[in-house]
Amino acid sequence: MTGTDSPVLRVAGRPVGRYVTRPELPARLSPRPYLHPVTTLAGTAVTESGPADHLHHLGVGVAVPDVEGHNFWGGRTFVRDRGPTELDNHGTQRHLAFQLRDPDGFVEELRWVAGGTELLRERRTVAATELTATAWALDFTFSLTNATRDPVTIGSPATNGRPGAAYGGFFWRARKESAAPDVFTADRKGEQEVHGRTADWLALVGGTWSLVFAGATARTRRDPWFVRTEEYPGVGSSLAHDERLALAPGDTLVRRIVTVVADGRLGTDDAATLVRKAVGP
Questions:
Q1: CA 176 vs CA 73, 74, 203: distances in Å
Q2: Residue 97: other Cβ atoms inside 10 A
Q3: Each residue of 75-116: pLDDT tens digit?
Q4: 151 near 144, Cβ under 8 Å?
Q5: H-run or E-run covering 99
Q6: Which of 14, 28, 122, 250 has the most C-beta neighbours closer than 10 Å?
């Protein structure tokens, strides 16, 4: 891993991800650290950052559209009875320090700040591990602690009145190709079947690449998946699906997602095998 502001993740000596620590972005995009580009071992890019369809989609990271009314996702805010609305309510995730930094990962401290106030303190742990000659795993854990003296609640457009839009949490903006990617779990297939449901793992398969997302803790696996394939390719894990999530002062929530990044088009059996190798039974 090299560079102070742009660490590079390596697997078996090969670069597979660049971490943008202090992005220079307009406030409307909710500036935050993110991974991009992320690639397969063969070098195929599997992320996008700032695409024309959603300028605020930034590779791989953590983004939340509603923390006590502040937008840490970017773009417009969904307002009940008004719809998507331009508001001056965007927050920023600010890098504080790396507690650990190695070629295959790091531990980072961040502050979530909006309106001049630190709302959340985050510890982010990222690790890259070789699985096979054609697949590696990105292990991404984030811990969010209420840094205020009052309760802090986390919401989503779904909890604010937009059905099916419970995005917010870990989010991976994948590579957009001429054809929409396939998406499936162990027992379901297609965006309509997997979106908004829980599953131990979920695969997104493009032309020459595959991503398999797995909740690596029991608590993480209880969060439904947010999935888009037709409008754009993206997968996230929903922190606030049916109701707002509340954190008392000093309380911490922890989520861990392990993503298999593979060359080629994986099927159900191969995806499950790689998840077991990456996460364990």
A1: 20, 20, 15
A2: 9
A3: 999 999 999 999 999 999 999 999 999 999 999 999 999 999
A4: no
A5: strand 92-102
A6: 122
> Distance (Å, rounded) from C-alpha 198 to C-alpha 200?
7
Q: How far apart are CA 236 and CA 90, in angstroms?
A: 20
Tokens of 25: 């972005």
Q: What count of other Cβ atoms lies within 10 Å of the Cβ of residue 64?
A: 26
Residue-wise pLDDT for 145-176, tens only, equals 999 999 999 999 999 999 999 999 999 999 99
- Closest CA relative to residue 263, chosen from 153, 131, 155: 131
Buried b (16+ CB within 10 A) or exposed e, 218-238: eebbebbbbbbbeeebbbbbb
CA angle (45, 30, 72) in 5-degree steps? 100
Quick check: 5 pLDDT over 90? no
Q: Extract the tokens encoding 94.
A: 């600010």
In the numeric block, the tokens 């379901």 are attached to 188
Dihedral angle computed from the Cα positions of residues 94, 236, 213 and 54, in that order, rounded to the nearest 10 degrees = -80
* SS3 call for 6: coil
Indicate if the pLDDT at residue 1 is higher than 60: no
Dihedral pair phi/psi, residue 194, rounded to 5°: -105, -25
